Automatic annotation (TrEMBL):
Source organism of this protein record: Escallonia rubra
Pfam (any one): MazG-like
Catalytic activity: dCTP + H2O = dCMP + diphosphate + H(+)
Gene Ontology CC: cytosol
Subcellular location field: Cytoplasm, Cytosol
EC number(s) per entry: 3.6.1.12
Protein name (record): dCTP pyrophosphatase 1
Length: 126
């Protein structure tokens, strides 16, 4: 499992559980579990959110689909988004939480809070 080729397999769908297990193994074989406390992972996550923000900084509004971005720019964005996701998954894991189930529950809650029949403007912005 701990080889680059197994990380690079092309998969149509990858589950949060699969990513969680790969990350746990990644940390375990490097002896990094001791550093992966909830607080440290949260700080790492926030740091990566900062790196993600830098990509958009000073660019002005960006069109959906990023039509004018180079493939290098898009690859950089993919990497920073992944860093955020991977730290988020690890944070949930070391907190003993099931992030996939939590997200599903939150989507249900969101739908109840913002029913389709509510006014046309999104109340979250008011
Ligand atoms: N203790 C660590 C260190 C790294 N990673 C993983 C999660 C992220 O996906 C990635 C972060 O690695 P870097 O700290 O090297 O950050 P970047 O990839 O953003 O590199 P740089 O900051 O040089 O752009 O590696 C991890 O799980 N645990």
């Amino acid at each position: 499992m701990e080889n680059t080729r197994s990380y690079c397999r092309k998969s149509k769908d990858v589950s949060l559980q699969e990513l969680r297990d790969m990350l746990a193994e990644f940390a375990r074989v490097r002896g990094w579990e001791q550093y992966h406390s909830p607080r440290n992972l949260l700080l790492a996550l926030v740091g990566e959110v900062g790196e993600l923000s830098e990509i958009f900084q000073w660019k002005g509004e960006v069109a959906r689909g990023l039509p004018n971005w180079t493939s290098d720019d898009k690859e950089h964005l993919e990497e920073e988004l992944s860093d955020v996701l991977l730290y988020l998954i690890q944070l949930a894991d070391v907190c003993g939480l099931d992030l996939g189930q939590a997200a599903l529950s939150k989507i249900v809650k969101n739908a109840q809070k913002y029913p389709v029949a509510s006014p046309p403007t999104n109340p979250a912005y008011h």
